[in-house]
Specification:
37% of the residues lie in helices and 17% in strands. It is built from nine helices and eight strands. It has an eight-stranded parallel sheet. The two termini are 24 Å apart. Bound molecules: pyridoxal-5'-phosphate. It comes from Alistipes onderdonkii.
Length: 222
């Protein structure tokens, strides 16, 4: 199946209010170009250098989302152009994004990544730590950051009940956090190729779909 076909298939399964981020990590610029030519404009990547290289060679009206774990020393590669950073999981990272955004004279939109999965390997804030941090009103001192919502990843399992539990927990976190922010706090980023229909049922407003659109990733070619 072609990328254009898969894209329109996935789009067709989503309510209109849900934003589709096409996750193009590890796939070449040509694959992104195919999706672009089919009319898609929002792409997600998980490595800053790879994101930067693709930005350089592809049309400038693409909205680039950083979805993977971001090290503070790599923020500078993407700060000049990134549209949304989904994976803000620490105070140090937020403060670095603030500094780099100020240097570029921009405001960068971010999501707060919250850890709900069973696996230790998943990153993200613990809700209690995040609540504690928010008590110091940190974002009032970060004028170059706009917090748009919450992002999370469900446990990697075929047990739908566990996945549903994780997504419900993310929605609960979103609802708890919302009063700390303004009206623009309206994005709940959750759901990937295998679990996005459940995420949408649980209140997702943004899904991040990779392999279902671009095919399986081949990490051996990296
Ligand atoms: C890779 C990735 C995705 C997309 O995963 P697929 O299973 O290919 O849809 C979504 N979110 C994050 C954070 C990712 O790293």
């Amino acid at each position: 199946m072609s990328i254009a076909y898969q894209l329109s298939f996935v789009r067709g399964t989503l309510p209109e209010y849900v934003t589709l981020v096409a996750v193009s990590k590890t796939h070449p610029a040509g694959a992104i170009r195919e999706a672009y030519d089919a009319g898609h404009r929002i792409f997600g990547e998980s490595r800053p250098q790879e994101l930067r290289e693709k930005y350089d060679v592809l049309p400038k009206d693409i909205e680039w989302h950083m979805i993977g774990h971001l090290q503070t020393n790599k923020v500078k590669y993407i700060a000049p152009f990134v549209s949304l950073i989904h994976s803000v999981d620490s105070a140090r990272l937020a403060e670095t994004i603030q500094r780099e955004a100020a240097k570029c004279g921009r405001t960068i939109e971010i999501l707060l990544e919250i850890r709900v999965a069973d696996e230790e390997s998943k990153s993200g804030w613990e809700l209690d730590d995040l609540m504690q941090y928010l008590r110091t009103a940190p974002f009032a001192q970060m004028p170059n950051i706009c917090v748009r919502g919450v992002m999370g990843i469900a446990t990697n399992t075929d047990d739908w009940e566990v996945i549903r539990r994780d997504f419900r927990e993310l929605k609960r976190c979103f609802d708890l956090l919302q009063p700390n922010f303004g009206a623009r706090f309206n994005i709940l980023s959750m759901g990937m190729s295998h679990d996005y229909p459940i995420a949408v049922e649980c209140g997702s407003t943004m899904v991040r779909v990779g392999s279902l659109i671009f095919g399986e990733r081949d990490y051996s070619k990296q």
